[in-house]
Amino acid sequence: MTIPATVPPLESLGGSPGSAPPPLPLPEDLELLLLIRHFERALLRLFEAGEVSGTTHTCLGQEYIPVALRTLLRADDRIFSNHRGHGHFLARHADPHGLLAEIMGREGALCGGVGGSQHIYHQGFMSTGVQGESLPVAVGVALALAESGAGGLACAYIGDGTWGEGAVYEALNMAALWRVPLLVVVEHNEIAQSTPTRVQMAGSIAGRAAAFGIRHEHLATTDLTEIRSRLAPLTEAVRAGEGPLIAEFATHRVGPHSKGDDTRTQQELRHARDHDWYARLAAAYPGPFAVADTAQRDRMAAIVAEVSARPAVRS
Length: 315
Prior knowledge:
Blueprint: H1 27-48, H2 64-69, E1 78-81, H3 86-92, H4 96-104, E2 121-122, E3 125-127, H5 134-148, E4 154-159, H6 166-178, E5 182-188, E6 191-192, E7 195-196, H7 205-211, E8 215-219, H8 224-239, E9 245-250, H9 266-274, H10 277-284, H11 286-308
Helix pairs in contact: 1-3, 1-11, 4-11, 5-6, 10-11
């Protein structure tokens, strides 16, 4: 199959691994980044050991996105996540014990152990494994927030693969018409499950946003400070009634689609690893990074041990 010349090559989407590394994040940001990284790694080990049923989709490589947005979102905002949402949750709620208990079906589970990895409903946070389902719901919630006059917004995380769902376009049409306070965060990791985006998406997300007259911002950096400085005025404009915003992150999924189903070539996997914030920060700041990394690795090991010792929830 011939790929159209208008489709950007893989290397153009995420910047150069040879460029300067991002600055070392603030301690609280670095701790959260590393907590999410080790939470996801622990989940993969638990699945491999047969300690968890069902499936899971980790956000390895993409952790910095919800961490960056953490300071831009308010307590009265509503968060809509997807199947790859553990990092979204942990950046919103500091409850790794409850999330792990939910996934493992142990006492203290966020949703009584019935939601598992993909379907969480907890204190203004909702995730779903159904592609595109959250965006129409987010538009309705954003409309209610606008009518309340309190300045809250709805933030919906979707991936590049979700742009193949018709519900996305119906939702964006209404969001633009009603000028609702909606922030759509696109985690463009270049692959939709097992299909490279460059061979299944015509045009661009920016072009699709333009078709609805929706503001679009493209971010190809892992620098939390830069992300926040660029998005802060735009999110405030969303709150002020100036209409929705699509923030598209050129990011890289380091892990498999779910547990072990990675169909990418070695070149594509190497490309993702070369852009991983974790490896780049570890190489650039070995001393402080190692200290923080060890602390969060040990913390996650203790969380796994404590939650694993809990009784199973009763059905």
